[in-house]
Design a protein that fits this description.
Blueprint (H helix, E strand, L loop, with lengths): L15 H12 L3 H8 L3 H9 L6 H10 L4 H26 L9 H6 L13 H12 L4 H9 L5 E3 L7 H16 L8 H13 L5 H14 L3 E5 L9 E7 L2 E7 L5 H17 L7 E4 L9 H14 L14 H10 L4 H10 L22
Parallel strand pairs: 1-5, 2-4
Antiparallel strand pairs: 3-4, 3-5
């Protein structure tokens, strides 16, 4: 069935010369006669008719006087012809770049709404190439390789599995697109640090209450904060990076987030911004909940996040928390959600992973558009 909403994209072009041929036929003129009237050589008129030379402003003015219509008509006719020629030439290039699609998670990008859903077959692949180029904001796969493919040299991985550059680059780009729509000031380190006291207090609130305030605090300190749906094979729950020398980005995925994991991941990324902000080319790919490669920077971020949530001066009390009531009392005393305490106890092996999970809260977020 034909898609009536689809744009008409013929694989042929019609130069302004086709219109001139129609006029010559109507008036029973030869090309030589038209050339004489226009003041051009017969060869130039023949090339103009065949579209081999551009129809210039001078030619448009002459045509207006000799055959009628307007300068605007002839220039618009030429512009449409050149645009169509360019698009057909681009389509040929897209057809030669379809192997690039094998490096990208096309189905997952469609599911996440990053690119339009369509069949993945030989006929549609050139259009998919164009969609992916538009999504990444690059002109060709060479530019993608230069910007995103080579970005892996800047990856600071927390897991060995974080090696699918196509999937990771797609997820990072989704975050960039959201961040590009956000207003923000230049990064203010001192304000960001001072705001952490209030940000930590937000851990006791449900998402619908803390999320707007969290976004506002980050924005006022010049930090872009975005929530982006996870893409399989990235194995990334959070990332910290610098979009430019003045704008850090903290990006979290939306999969399987209980409040203890959410807040620990968030503050882990905050740590990278504050502790490792001089390394502005680095891209910290993190999944703090999973064991794996732990660099010095990852250990520093883990320790910083853990100590911010549960300050070191209270850590010796954790071993005595064996009941839900004790956990809740302790959490209340240090002004933090009990689920975060449970997550810490489980992580350190102080309680079984099956204990007290009803104190943890599962979060559901809506990705920003």
């Amino acid at each position: 069935m034909t898609d009536l909403a689809a744009p008409f994209t013929p694989d042929w072009v019609s130069p302004p010369g086709d219109t001139l041929l129609d006029i010559l036929e109507e008036r029973d003129w030869t090309q030589d006669e038209l050339a004489q009237r226009l003041g051009y050589t017969p060869k130039h008129v023949n090339q103009l008719i065949k579209g081999k030379v551009p129809l210039t402003e001078d030619a448009a003015i002459r045509l207006e006087r000799v055959v009628g219509s307007t300068v605007g008509f002839w220039l618009a006719r030429e512009a449409k012809y050149r645009e169509r020629c360019a698009r057909l030439a681009a389509a040929e290039k897209f057809a030669g770049w379809t192997d690039w699609l094998n490096t990208l998670p096309i189905k997952e990008m469609m599911s996440a709404g990053a690119i339009e859903k369509r069949r993945i077959d030989a006929k549609s692949k050139p259009a998919l190439v164009e969609s992916c180029l538009r999504f990444f904001g690059i002109a060709s796969p060479d530019e993608w390789q230069g910007r995103y493919g080579q970005m892996q040299a800047a990856f600071r991985r927390s897991r060995e599995e974080q090696s699918d550059v196509g999937a990771i680059s797609a997820w990072l780009r989704m975050g960039e697109q959201v961040a590009e729509k956000l207003d923000g000031v230049k990064f203010n380190r001192s304000k960001f640090v001072s705001d952490l006291v209030e940000i930590r207090k937000l851990t006791t609130l449900p998402p619908e209450q803390f999320e707007p305030r969290l976004r506002a605090l980050f924005s006022s300190a010049g930090v872009a904060f975005v929530l982006v749906p996870a893409i399989p094979k990235t194995h990334v729950s959070g990332v910290a990076r610098w979009l430019n020398p003045h704008r850090p980005l903290i990006q979290l995925s939306l999969y399987g987030k209980t409040n203890d994991k959410f807040w620990f991941t968030l503050f882990h990324e905050v740590a990278h911004v504050l502790l490792h902000g001089k390394e502005k080319e680095s891209v910290y790919l993190d999944d703090p909940a999973k064991a794996g490669v732990e660099s010095v920077q990852e250990r520093e971020a883990n320790d910083w996040a853990g100590n911010l949530l549960i300050p070191a001066r209270f850590a010796n009390q954790l071993t005595g928390l064996r009941t839900k009531a004790a956990v809740c009392d302790f959490a209340h005393a240090i002004d933090i959600h009990p689920g975060i305490v449970v997550g810490r106890l489980q992580h350190e092996g102080l309680i079984d992973p099956s204990w007290m999970n009803d104190l943890r809260v599962s979060f559901k977020f809506t990705a920003a558009k």
